[in-house]
């Protein structure tokens, strides 16, 4: 647990529940906006949630321009294109309907609309000081938590690197609408990858060197909600209670990791996305079981508590046995959801393992990961997963 002072805040207004998307026009007007730039996942243009929101905006006399040309891993090229369109429309606010990639693209455009320049200018922490254009996010995956997180991730195509633009106050959306209708049409495999990503956020934040009493409370409940609902949700995305649990758990975990940082799972997933364009949630899911086992020795007591959350390990067992039960239970979730077990199964080539290890070590997640990890240890982890 963090031994120094810490802060914990939630600058995002979260609107939660069935049919809460109907509140969007009034939320736009509360921000003094009459012209909106609507960033939509290309696969969702004809979806029920997009049609319902578009109709609501039209009925309330709000002018909107739709941008649906993003990619699964948002690139700086798409940011430039969307920024030009947003300027041309004269947008006064933004709405994002989609998963983390769509919301991150909208965040980047919102930053440029008030700060100007190129999105690469703002890589790092607190590199801009003017509040972005108001953003209302409607997540259609229960996973990234981008709607409340203090970061957006954009690929720099010139370097094949995923840039993290971080600002705890200005990067989160002003409003997040968590409506089960928004996730009802998500494909099962996307629900699985996104759900594991959300679990990893809570799990790694709970294990972080910077964990604190506030983050612990949020992460423990997030893990309970996600682990208790993920199988049912992947099996039926129209399961309203499971969807609400997943949306809640996802946002809770994202609130926390902005304070505590994450660990080796995310550290290794970033170069997998940058070099091989493995979807972020899938990259996390493939790495999770092996990394969970690697970190156990540094946080055995916390792993034992995770086992309790996951209903793994019996009473009377030693702490070590219960901690190992958490690792086994995590592997079981991944198997039940059909997560690929090997990097070779998701397009990664063996000749890249050294570069993946180099990039992982250089990212310096040792600031947060509970077990210090050398470049050679990263190399061995990648080999074990390959």
TrEMBL record:
Q: Which UniProt keywords apply?
A: Oxidoreductase
Q: Which domain of life is it from?
A: Bacteria
- Presence of keyword Oxidoreductase: yes
Per the database record, which ranges form the Alcohol dehydrogenase iron-type/glycerol dehydrogenase GldA domain? 11-180
Q: Domain Fe-containing alcohol dehydrogenase-like C-terminal: where?
A: 192-386
The record ties this protein, via SUPFAM superfamilies, to: Dehydroquinate synthase-like
InterPro entries per the record?
A: ADH_Fe/GldA, ADH_Fe_C, Alcohol_dehydrogenase_Fe
Q: Which GO MF terms are attached to this record?
A: alcohol dehydrogenase (NAD+) activity; metal ion binding
Which cofactors does it use?
A: Fe cation
Q: Which family does it belong to?
A: Belongs to the iron-containing alcohol dehydrogenase family.
Protein name (record)? Alcohol dehydrogenase
């Amino acid at each position: 647990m963090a031994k120094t002072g810490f802060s914990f805040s939630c600058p995002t207004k979260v609107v939660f529940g069935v049919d809460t998307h109907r509140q969007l026009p009034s939320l736009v007007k509360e921000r003094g906006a009459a012209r909106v730039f609507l960033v939509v996942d290309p696969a969702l243009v004809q979806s029920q949630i997009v049609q319902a929101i578009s109709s609501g905006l039209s009925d309330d006399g709000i002018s909107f321009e739709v941008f649906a040309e993003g990619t699964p891993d948002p690139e700086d090229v798409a940011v430039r294109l969307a920024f030009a369109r947003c300027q041309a429309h004269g947008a006064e606010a933004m709405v994002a309907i989609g998963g983390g990639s769509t919301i991150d693209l909208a965040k980047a455009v919102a930053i440029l609309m008030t700060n100007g320049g190129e999105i690469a200018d703002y890589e790092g922490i607190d590199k801009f000081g003017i509040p972005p254009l108001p953003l209302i996010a409607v997540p259609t995956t229960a996973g990234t938590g981008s709607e409340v997180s203090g970061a957006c991730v954009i690929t720099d195509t010139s370097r094949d690197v995923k840039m993290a633009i971080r600002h705890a106050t200005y990067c989160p959306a002003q409003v997040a609408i968590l409506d089960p209708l928004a996730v009802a049409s998500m494909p099962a495999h996307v629900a699985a990858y996104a759900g594991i990503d959300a679990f990893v956020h809570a799990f790694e934040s709970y294990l972080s060197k910077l964990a604190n009493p506030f983050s612990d409370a949020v992460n423990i409940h997030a893990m309970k909600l996600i682990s208790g609902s993920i199988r049912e949700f992947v099996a039926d995305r129209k399961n309203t209670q499971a969807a609400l649990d997943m949306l809640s758990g996802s946002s809770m975990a994202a609130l926390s990791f902005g304070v505590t940082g994450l660990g080796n799972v995310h550290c290794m997933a970033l170069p997998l996305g940058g070099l091989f364009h493995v979807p972020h949630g899938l990259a996390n899911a493939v790495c999770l079981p092996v990394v969970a086992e690697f970190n156990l020795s540094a946080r055995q007591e916390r792993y034992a508590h995770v086992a309790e959350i996951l209903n793994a390990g019996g009473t009377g067992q030693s702490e070590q046995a219960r901690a190992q039960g958490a690792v086994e239970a995590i592997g079981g979730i991944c198997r039940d959801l059909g997560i690929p077990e090997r990097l070779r199964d998701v397009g990664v080539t063996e000749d890249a393992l050294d570069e993946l290890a180099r990039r992982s070590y250089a990212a310096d997640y040792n600031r947060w990961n509970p077990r210090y990890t050398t470049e050679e240890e990263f190399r061995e982890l990648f080999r074990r997963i390959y």
